[in-house]
Structures are given as structure tokens and as C-alpha cells.
Amino acid sequence: MTSSFAERLERLKGFGLTDYQARVYLALLTLGTAEASQVPAVSKVPRTRIYSTMNQLHEKGLVEVVPEKPMKYRPVPFRAFLDRCVGELRSRAEQLDTEAQEYETLFAPPKEQSTDRRGRFEVLYGRRNVRDRIGRMYEGARTSVIAVGTASSPDRIVKSRRFILEDLAERKVSVRYAFPFENTDRELVRRISAFSTVRLFDQGLPVSIIVVDDSEAILNHPMPNDEQGARGEDVGLWTNDEAMVKALGTIAANLYASGSDPERNTNLTPMLNSIRRFVDGVEIDPEPILRMVGAHIGTHIGAKLQGNELHEVLTELAAYFHEHELGTVTVIKDQPVTVTIEGFFDCEKVLPHLGESLCRFVETVVESALRERLGDRTPVVRESRCFGTGANNCRIKMEGAPQQPLPLLQVQGT
User: Fold this and answer.
1) What one-character-per-residue DSSP string does 357-370 give?
2) In the chain, N or C: fewer CB atoms in 10 Å?
3) Which of these three, 76, 102, 135, is where a domain ends?
4) What distance, in Å, lies between the first and last C-alpha atoms of the chain?
5) What is the average pLDDT value for the chain, to the nearest integer?
6) If we measure between CA atoms, which residue out of 102, 203, 105, 212 comes closest to residue 161?
7) Structural domain of residue 170, as residue ranges?
8) SS3 for 329?
């Protein structure tokens, strides 16, 4: 894998090197063993700063001094530097673990005597601080985690939370995520779904919410909203206040419930939610909108079918609905042909109950699918029961269908 000079320079700075130190080290990687006088032209570091920079790199263990005349310098393989860093960090971690109790006692805050039963609030600044607090919340989870993220959240979760999610799954902790439908990487969502349940909802938020065990929560504003795991000017608000945790938990649960399974091949829940908000907020006849959308969907479905007779097309339609988890199709009568559809696109959850039929949408989906296969022989589809009137299914009659028994009276989509 090749990287640009600028990218390599930034990666070295991530290990605490200054700009001059990083440039000199990269120059030595190019030159190999070299005299100090050879380095300025390659590194673009002033000649007067070369010797001090070489000494600093030597102290860090990135440069070896070759005792020749004139003196030469040799770059140390970066893996050796990494191994040294790992060893020092492990040694320091062991030392801190041994001295933790002593430091806890030495720097303990005064005990609060307040009888106030309200929970605590804590503001966290910087992505690293927010990330670490969320990590502790995950590790302490006993029963449940529910989180609402941004479109960039799956990337950060896969990079920094994968092992924690595996541990939570082993401990049978319920983990639920809700991410925006738009701009969310489906492959990352599938990887997260191996250890949790995920739903995609139609309204993205600029913040993320995490609630653990209904006892603590954090509201985080990622700045910028990107995939970086530690770099960012995030602002987080953590709390264990009962009322605040309950409120954030309710928001997260509602967004999760409004979402849909990302594995469903055809997902219209976000679109239907948008139609519902539009119909609720504006006094306008929804029928033209529903018919337009339904015709597009029905034509798409019809193009996938093969039959040329009504009973063949209905049989395939039921199978298609079953395969793509669009609902259950049942023919309950053959004269006139009458079909019920249950669970269609989650209509019963997201279409408004206005006391009148809204299944111009369902009518048009079915009729357009039939017309794609039957052409002028397509019966007129009329809906007689609807989710819009509060029913738990759609009932559709087909006027002008052939007056003959249909061999699929028991066909269902599930």
C-alpha cells in the first residue's frame, strides 16, 4: 500500500513527532545511512536544525548514530520503535495498576454531604474523552444498550467497539442501534448486526444518543461528524439523572421503533414516514402522491414476474412479497377475485389513520404489477379495506377478472 508524503508525515506526527523530526526521519528512510549535510535538501529542514533534530530522534529510538568520520546517521526500522513504545506503555500500565489504590486515596475528592436525590451531569470535551466515557458505559452494561447514531457512527463503532460488542453478545446484553437511512454504509451496518439489532430511520440527527441499562445516558455532538476515532472537538453531556435518562431513552426507543430492518431488500418506511408527516402537516389530498409512488413500485415488481395469466401472476406476486418481506398475500375469494395483504411495507405503522381509504397506494402497486404482465387484460383493482381506516390489512377486489376458479385460494406470502 502506497501513501503520499503528506499522509506519512501526518501519521508520524500522530506518534508525537514534530514536523522537523518527521521530515528528517522520512528523509533518512529515503537516503539510508547518511551524513547530516545530505539531509536538508531532502527533508526541507533548515541546516541549522538538523543536528538537534537528529539528537531528538536518537533519544526517541528512531535514529542510530554511526561513529565514523564524518559522523553518519541511520534510520531505525519503525517496527522496532513501535515494539519499544508497546513495551513502555505496558510497563507504565502495570505500574499504574499497582499504584491505582494509592492515587485514588491521595487524590480523592471531598465526600458530598448533599441529600439532593437528583442525578449528576458531566460535560465532556474532545472526541477521545467522549469515546472513553462511552467505552466505560459499554463495559459496565448489564442488561441493555440502545443507541441512536449519525451516518458516520457505524464506521467509528466497527473501528473501536467491535470487541466490546462481541463481549456484550456473549454476556447476553441486548444491544439496539438506530442509524439514518441516508448515507449510512450498509456493509458496516451488516457487520454491526452480527452482535446487535439495527434499524434505519429516515430523519438523520446531528447528535448521537446512548442509553445503558436505563440508568445512564450520554448525548454527544460529534464535531466534525466524520470517521475519526479520536480526533474531534466533540461535546458530550453524560448523566445518570433519572428523568433525563428516561427522556433520552424514550427518544432513542421511538427512533428505533420507527426504523426498518436494513436487510429488507425493498425499504419504503422512510418514504412512507415522509408522506405521513406531509399529510399530517398540510391539508392536501394525498391520493395523487400515493398513486404516483405506487405505480413506480408496482411496475418495478411486475418486471420481475414471469406469468401471463392472472392466477400465475398472483401466485408469483405472493411469492415475491414473501421473499422480500413485503407482507402476506392471500386470495380469499375467486368470484370476484379478492385478495388481502397484511404487513404491506409497514403501512399500518406509518400511514395516517384518517378514517378514509389511503390504499390508492396499495391499489396502484398491485394494479401496476399486474398490468406489466397482463397488459389490456388487467382487471380494475379496487380496495375495500385499508390501513388508513385502522384495519389490520388491505382487502382488494379485482373487477373484470376472468370468471373462473383460481387455483391459489390458499396461497400466502408467509
Assistant:
1) --THHHHHHHHHHH
2) N
3) 76
4) 49
5) 81
6) 212
7) 121-258
8) strand
205 dihedral zone (left: phi>0; alpha: psi -120 to 50; beta): beta
**What 3-state class would DSSP assign to 336?**
coil
Instruction: Indicate if the alpha-carbon torsion angle 340, 341, 343, 345 is positive or negative.
Output: negative
- Write out pLDDT tens, residues 290-324: 777 778 888 888 888 998 888 888 888 888 888 77
Answer yes or no: do 382 and 299 share one domain.
yes
In terms of domains, do 239 and 127 share one? yes
Q: Strand pairing partners for 340? A: 330, 395
pLDDT 10s digits, 351-370: 544 444 555 677 888 888 88
**Residues 354/283, Cβ–Cβ less than 8 Å:** no
Q: Is the pTM of this model over 0.85?
A: no
Q: How far, in Å, CA of 50 to CA of 23, rounded?
A: 10
Nearest to 314 by CA among 300, 293, 329, 304: 329
Where residue 393 falls (left for φ over 0; alpha for ψ -120 to 50; beta otherwise) is beta
CATH label of the domain that carries residue 154: 3.30.870.10
Residues in contact with 265: Cβ distance below 8 Å, sequence separation at least 6, in sequence order = 324, 325
Is the separation of the CB atoms in 157 and 138 below 8 Å?
no
